[in-house]
Amino acid sequence: DPKVDVLGLPDGVKFVFLDIGLASIIFTCILGQLTTQVNASHQMIDYINNYFALFTLYVAMTVEFSGVMHSSYLIQNILSAISGKPIQTNEPPKTGFTFAFFWGRVLMSLAILGFSLAVTLVALFNGDTSVSIKYPSISPGLAVFLLFFFMSIVGMLEGMQIAFFAVAKLPADQRGTSMFGKKTCNLLFAGNGQNLPGFMIGRQLTVVCSFFLVGSFTSLTIVPGEGNNIFGVSDGAQAFLNYGFQGAVITTILASISWQLAASAYPIAFLNNPITYVLLCVALFLEFTGLCAGAWV
């Protein structure tokens, strides 16, 4: 509510920091991500030498074992077949029950992803998402476009991170095969190499900002028990969907893992993309502003 007083701040400042969410974005970037990444990069062993790190690993392995995100493995296999690059793994070939269990989870993941997309798109067209409340002037069609636009931005930044580290090991004359590829590498690896960590900071700020916006498009505002449950699901199921499970599935697979896999298979193609150069400049500019410089303290 713009009429609510917050520390005596002017309305314009409240709009930028609270309504748009810049305060939450910076808070999440610095305390929730960049600070831990900086500490981990300098104290790698100490960072994982605790029970919380072990607990986090077990949670991540449990989520992977559940198969919810296994459709990303299908994307990995497709990209491997297209690129002609075999998947490097220490696991033995899947046979028998292991083969069936793996691909069964892939099919389950595809079904979950399809359902999540259906829920999100129907909610967007019905005006049952947070974006309809925050920005009522945005039409359903525009909301769908913006959802995939911001997910593409996140995906490009996720892929760029993989591609940049992949080409960092290559000789300078092999890092780009087009004008934009060479411009990207010249900017990224210029001077003493500070632009690479600078990109990581600017990238993180852009990703968090995009995820906050995507969250507005995927979070549901349907109140269970009023007869408006999406697809006629039970009140309990509607309450579960209101937590944003479908948004987490969509963004993780379509806005993160898929792009990372594509970049690992085609790093040079990512560098040659002019959008990569534009996003690199944007990320470096955001880092230059110092909004997240507190992470270095």
From TrEMBL:
Coiled coil, from the record: none
Membrane-spanning ranges: 12-34, 54-75, 96-125, 145-168, 205-223, 243-263, 275-296
Protein name: Silicon transporter
BP terms from Gene Ontology: silicic acid import across plasma membrane
Native organism: Cyclotella cf. meneghiniana
Keyword Transmembrane tagged: yes
Keywords for the protein's UniProt record, in alphabetical order: Membrane, Transmembrane, Transmembrane helix
Upper taxonomic lineage: Eukaryota, Sar, Stramenopiles, Ochrophyta, Bacillariophyta
Designated gene of the protein: SIT
